[in-house]
Amino acid sequence: MRSIYFDHSGTTPVHPAVAEEMYKYLTGDNFGNPSSVHHFGLQICKKVTEARDKVAQALGANTREIVFTSGGTESDNLAIHGAAHTNKKWGNHIITSAVEHHAVLNTVKALGKEGFDITILPVDKYGMVSVDDVAAAITDKTILITIMHANNEVGTINPIAEIGKLARERKIIFHVDAVQSFGKIPVNVDDLGVNLLSLSGHKIYGPKGTGVLYIRKGTRWRQTLLHGGSQEHLCRAGTENIPGIMGFAKAVELVMENREAESARLMVLRDKLIREVTAIDHVTLTGHPTQRLPNHASFLFKYIEGESMLLGLDMKGIAASTGSACTSGSLEPSHVLLAMGIKHEDAHGSLRITLGKDNTEDDVDYFLEVIKPIVEKLRAMSPLKD
Questions:
Q1: Which of 69, 222, 269, 271 has the largest count of CB atoms under 10 Å?
Q2: pLDDT at residue 325 is higher than 60
Q3: Which residue among 228, 257, 286 closes a domain?
Q4: The predicted structure's pLDDT at residue 226
């Protein structure tokens, strides 16, 4: 039986070159603590600086603006808590959107319970945030705007550069979750106008448990989650995860080398998927038709459950997802789809196909071959169809 992986927005396999790089720091003399002043520590400190510089170059940032974390969730939490608590004497208003990843949305809601004033913006039918809505929501108490670059569930790309320009003009701190976009489309911190930006290693063929928070020099921000030593420029206490950091930097290097060509290749496969799948009766595309990630195709299949489709696909050797991987175990429909105005019963019929470096046109053809009979079988059994 074939084994095809179509869930790269959930996680990606570790690139062999990344695993090889990490292994160097799990064996031999590369075990030093970078805070130590002896040669074991100093040689590792140098390597961490080199890794930090690779990430900074990829983002158009300064090396000292890069903070290594345990992943996108920690980076989002650090960014939002740090900005909110540092700036609360100037204001208590935070703006976000209804389709953010739960690492952002739940963090902002938690701050609301602490007394911060929260505005959760609506989105259009494509899941896109309006710049005009952001502008209208700003008050003289607004201290933070946090909007994702690209949505993990429907692939829509937000107008981040325009929102960043607005935030700069109003002198408001701007945080962007770029976990899904980095490595697929350009992510330059100056072009986007961000103060804070979150990345995750396991979305770019790096190791799980690794991430980055970019903190623009001069941003009013302080560490609030971890207290301890002076690691990561006093931004994140705790001895660094050296194998993870080196693996993350190697993943960044590899994904940046081939980003444009790979994105163009995946876009062809994505468009074929969208064209053929939406030709099936009662199937619609979710997310923006053009302003979407190059590897991302997401759909609604009326009258059937997404979970049932996943089981059928898995029996044919295809791994896909329905909604977000972080909430796929829940019986509740996607908060993203509901925010887009999709009916509760229809939102249960979502299917997300996210392509990666090892996927081929043959994989796509096989999926198209098996999805139609799966849909026909499930609809024949569905009480909703009548």
A1: 69
A2: no
A3: 257
A4: 78
